[in-house]
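Page 47, continued from p. 46.
Same chain as before, 213 aa.
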Amino acid sequence: MIFCSSHAFPVRSQRLVPWLAACLLSGWIWHAVGPIPTCLAQSEKAAPASSQSQSDKSSTSKQEPEVKEQSMQGTVSKVIDGDSIKVKDDQGKEFEVQIEGTDAPESKQEYGKEATEALRKLCMDKDVRVTWTKKDNFERILAQVYLGSEHINATMLRDGHAWHFKRYNQSKELAELEEKAKQAKRGLWGTEAPQAPWDYRKENRAPDKPDRS
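Result:
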């Protein structure tokens, strides 16, 4: 016995297949557990969920590896400018170090010589600890530099000898130190019209600082 619409009809076996096909197309076949189209619809809805689950597992398995911090002890052998130095380790090997998060005025720029001299007085020939997680595209270390417990990166910004290089560094602490130096007109902020080093380089078509990404 087949139930079609609201009536029950006996169906002979030789006519069963074409009759079932017609009823399926019209959506009127029912059975004890409900309409077939509904079951099919539920099956179709379940498929994307399975696909999404596989996608989630795939994205989870592709997590970026953690970057391990490296460090070394050494002596400052040269001050290049207001934001870069050379450090010689205990094996006599020399490394060029960029003081990460800072951008000091260029040598030919106003306050450039003063910034270089300030860094020289701070750390030249002194033992420092250098920590980093990456290098720039010239293989120079992008570092946090410590003189004992003093953080040189922070000191240069606090005293107004460099700009906070926000393009590559989003430290709130360094941003606050720069702002306080501005308000107090310390260092370069006491000059008549401080110009950001990156703007100076752009105007003079000088190479920008190496890519920190």
